[in-house]
Amino acid sequence: MSTSYKLRNPEGLYFISFGTVHWIDLFTRPTYNNILVESLRHCQENTGLETLRWCL
Of 55, 56, 52, which Cα lies nearest the Cα of 14? Predict the structure, then answer.
């Protein structure tokens, strides 16, 4: 992620989107997909990350 993306307002809502190139395995293999989902869950439980919606 670029260093220009700074979340300066802790009360604000943010939309973050990114594109991937040649990362097809991440989205087609359940093992990699599960790692990504577990990483999101970890951030939600341990860092206070709040997500309203997300999709793979």
Answer: 52
